[in-house]
Amino acid sequence: MTLQRVRACPRRRLLACGLLCACLALPGVAADVLDDPDAWLESDADLQSLAVNEGALEFLTEQPERRVLHTRNWLTISAASLMSGWVELRQCQGNLDPVDRVEIVYRYQAMRNLQVLSARGVGSARIVNDAVQMTQVGADAEVCIAAEVRVLRPAGDGRFVLQSGPFHRRFLDGYYPVRLDYRVSFPPGLLVLENIQPPGQPGFEVETDAGGVRIEALFEGRLTIRLVLRRAALSRLLPY
Fold it and tell me: Could you tell me if residue 3 is inside a domain?
């Protein structure tokens, strides 16, 4: 595969697709952009030295030696969410690549009240439309945001679908490792988890209780998480 540098890249971007994000920077990057304006590498040799996943989902059981984007996501479903579809989102992006400037762009069909909760190891962080723009990003930087997203869909017969993703870290036609901590919470007695895809397996650990779901995943490729929830029995909602 032959790559060509085209021009200097004024700002690097992390694209947040679904509940996350495609982190486009890789270890040792320089401010160059290739044919894809949202992608870059320091040199052809850097890219060729990495095994390239072309998009097939592969769960990993060992931490890769190179830098791995760490994304933590918390979704909170309330009783009002069942009527409106809006849920609360908290998200932290950590283990970012050190760069002068970076932009995290959120691509939801419906999103509101986006705000920066905290930023560590960066010169500045501000909201511009549906994006977080940061400057002077350090090696151990982390940024956390809050928002409301309309991602809960009714599926009939008292059921709801919450679909997140695809989560991925992409450069050109290659996909690179992501560490994902994904949580969905709701009041006990409000909902019951009926199904989750993909199912739990090595590299995709699932824990459930009466108040929600927690998933810890380490993977390459494109990961979509689909939860099917149903209303709890009426008797469980009554105070006796």
Answer: no
Residue 5 lies in a domain: no
Residue 6 lies in a domain: no
What's the total number of domains in the chain?
Answer: 1
**Residue at token pair 């990003």:** 137
pLDDT band for 66, please (50, 70, 90 cuts). confident
Describe the strand order of the beta sheet including 124-128 as a list of residue ranges. Answer: 20-23, 12-17, 99-107, 131-137, 124-128
Show the CA angle centred on residue 103, arms to residues 214 and 172, nearest 5°.
Answer: 80
Cross-strand bridge partners of residue 89: 75, 147
240 inside domain = no
The answer to whether 25 and 66 are in contact (CB under 8 A) is: no
Query: Which domain covers residue 58, as residue numbers?
Result: 11-233
The model's pLDDT over 184-227, given as tens digits with 9 standing for 90+, comes to: 999 988 999 999 999 999 999 999 999 999 999 999 999 999 99
User: How many angstroms from the chain centroid is the CA of residue 156?
Assistant: 28
Residue type, 161: V
With 0.85 as the threshold, say if the pTM is over it: no
Sequence-ordered list of residues with C-beta below 8 angstroms from that of 132, at least 6 positions apart, any chain: 103, 104, 114, 116, 125, 126, 143, 145
